[in-house]
Design a protein that fits this description.
Elements: H1 16-25
Amino acid sequence: DNDPDPMPKFNKMNRHGTRCAGEIVMTPNNSFCGVGIA
């Protein structure tokens, strides 16, 4: 959707895919309370 916001709001446009993408790119010790997937 060409939205450059790194922390999108949870709404109809930003649901499953947005959350999955965030988990995939997370790294340990990043101050965002997540470690991603292996």
